[in-house]
Amino acid sequence: MRHRGRGFPGAANLFRGGGLLPKPLIAEYEKFARLVTPPALEAVWEVCLSIFNTGANNPQRHAQNNTVTTENLEKSIEKATIAPPHPDELDEQDADDQDDRPPPASPRQEAPVPEETPAVDLDSVPAQFCSGCTRKLSLCDYPTKNNEILLTCVRCKVKQQNRRPQRRQTAPPQIGQENVAPPPVRRARRSRAQINAERAAEERKRIANVEEAMAAAANARRIREQAEAARAAEDARRDTTAVASTAEAEVEAARRARRARRAAADARKASSAAEYARRDATLRESMAAAARIAEANARQFREQAEAAWAASAAEYARRDAALRESMAATALASQETSRAAVLHEYLERRQSLPHSYSARRGVFTSIFRTVC
Question: What is the 3-state secondary structure (H, E, C) of the chain?
Fold first, then answer.
């Protein structure tokens, strides 16, 4: 059997206690916390815990509890079971007989599946270290007792089912145990009819507070939606005006930029035309100077060629005359030499010639023919 306290969680353990519930219920609870008064907020907190306590200590029920949203919150409030007795209603003997075993599996309530389940933001889910396995897990993995989060995760708690809890806490609270609930106080027991009547009255009061809180939340939501619609209309009008003025400014800026570009292009065209004219004049002048220089060079070359030709012709004539003179001298020398040889031969033959005149005349004739 599990115990559930009546205390409303304060600001100190609000986020620590918020880890007990699925994220959709946490979002709804935070939305109510910003809109309603503390009594209605306490009623919302009690109803959320009553919805979730059916599977808070059972890890297989978390997937089903995550489907609870605002649409089926009223149905879940009507289906909430009667809470177990408060620890103050039990004596010490009954409190000592209680153990930490998980409750028996209750019949699963089929909750309508929403069309779109929002994704869980893992960065916003708090976590703590388990005292059994020393692993850092999210608060959804820890069981609860008296609306408080235990320091041992579900896996370690399942392993320790047969261990009985301590009769009373004799040592001072250690680090991480500041929020452990105090031991129950012994009081006089009441009848079951009184307990059931008080529970029914508390349930009716809780349901009325929840209905009032939901009506206030719906009214606040409607007011907020109207304000948001008016703000959106004002923003749309302002955006339309800003877009129109921005469009006119952009058109005027585009016109000025186009005129500036056209003026710059005209200036560049004029400067390029002047530069082209200056380059053309310079080119024509340089071409005329080059033509004059080429003509002077051709004239000088022609004169030099004519002078060289005349000099070579004179040299050739001088060489021809010298050659003719040398050839004439050579011919004369050879003629003189041939005459001397003929005369020497004549003298030699004369010594051996016969003394007759006719014979000598025939020899002389042959010699002179040979020479001449």
Answer: CCCCCCCCCCCCCHHHHHCCCCHHHHHHHHHHHHHCCHHHHHHHHHHHHHHHCCCCCCHHHHHHHCCCCCCCHHHHHHHCCCCCCCHHHCCHHHHHHCCCCCCCCCCCCCCCCCCCCCCCCHHHCCEEECCCCCCEEEHHHCCEECCEECCCCHHHHHHCCCCCCCCCCCCCCCCCCCCCCCCCCCCCCCCHHHHHHHHHHHHHHHHHHHHHHHHHHHHHHHHHHHHHHHHHHHHHHHHHHHHHHHHHHHHHHHHHHHHHHHHHHHHHHHHHHHHHHHHHHHHHHHHHHHHHHHHHHHHHHHHHHHHHHHHHHHHHHHHHHHHHHHHHHHHHHHHHHHHHHHHHHHHHHHHHCCCCHHHHHHHHHHHHHHHC
